[in-house]
Amino acid sequence: MSTALEPRARGREFGETWRDRVAATVAGYRELFGRGGLTDLTVPGRAALAAVERWAPELALEIRGIAEGSGQPVEAVAAVNARTELLADARRGPAAGECSTVVALRGPGQEPLAAQNWDWYAGLAGNWLEWEIPHPSGEGPPRRTVTLTEYGIVGKIGVNDRGVGCLFNILHHRHDGGAPGVPVHVIARRLLDTCDTVTEALAVLGSAPVSASTTLTVVGGLDAGKTAVAAELWPGGPAHVLPDPDGLLLHTNHFLVRPAADGDTEPVTDPDTLVRYEVLRRTLTGRGADLGDTEALDALRDHSGGVCVHAPHGRADAFQTLASVRIDFAARALRIVPGPPCRTPHTSE
């Protein structure tokens, strides 16, 4: 948990505390970027930081603080925060297998269920953490953000003390790339830091110019206007996906609505996203009102459609489920299962 409240001081505290892990994250992404031909992070890092400064200056200060505390070049830390954008620009997208998201709004008086598998390169499996971030309270009650993220990246999957949660699925569109837009990880963090409702979160998402595509699924608990909307961010967007009539919302790594779907590259390059979506759809359709936590985890353990992903032994460049995450709206907390969820025994709900 951070103790500093001012953004630059918070970042400096984080960088000092996790100096070695930030260095490992930067090194891991230098290698990954290098596979796509990007070896010098100075220019793209500066451009990414400038995009953050224009849209979320407080998070630009935090990135500068992380660099200062960890002893890493600020351009490198900014580039890591813009890793989705830089990979899109280099046309170096993920290998087959990526994140799978399940949301069930459930019945009256119940908090919604929101869970996902986070899949990424196996070689980066040791480079994530759960980070609790306090914010100045001013005249009102104190604010708090909890996020699963990578060391040196300001945010990703998370929930705030107001009961607004955010899940994360990368997308790929033929118009991705070019001058860096606002990094999608920065967008997720600002959403969690500032929004009290799903409506406010969608307004934040709509205000961010992006250069790489991602779905941010925003879910509100009972106190935040209980609902869920998947915002498909892309350079011409965003577009939005609503739950089905039973309250179920699923997402993998392809666009679900037009016009963005017309430029989707994923069904051709990595069609496993279609299989995972179909497996979840077939398993969970009709369960939006009564889906239990254990049943949701069972769906995320599935191997027949590749929802639960295992890297071949020794393949740091292959994908694996690095964590399964469920948002606990009652506690305003994350329930995280490290590694592929099939390796963790069931626990009571």
What does this entry look like structurally?
The chain is an alpha+beta fold and 349 residues long. Helices cover 33% and strands 22% of the residues. The protein is built from eleven helices and twelve strands. The protein has helices at residues 7-17, 19-35, 42-55, 57-70, 74-81, 83-89, 184-194, 198-206, 266-269, 272-284, 293-300; strands spanning 100-104, 113-121, 128-135, 143-150, 157-160, 164-170, 214-220, 227-233, 239-241, 248-251, 319-328, 333-338. The strands form two sheets. A seven-stranded antiparallel beta sheet has the order 3-4-5-6-7-8-9, covered by helices on one side. A five-stranded antiparallel beta sheet has the order 10-1-2-11-12, with helices on one face. The longest helix is centred in the first third of the chain and has 17 residues, at 19-35. It is globular, with a radius of gyration of 19 Å. It starts with 6 loop residues before the first helix and ends in an 11-residue tail after the last strand. The model has no long low-confidence stretch (mean pLDDT 92).
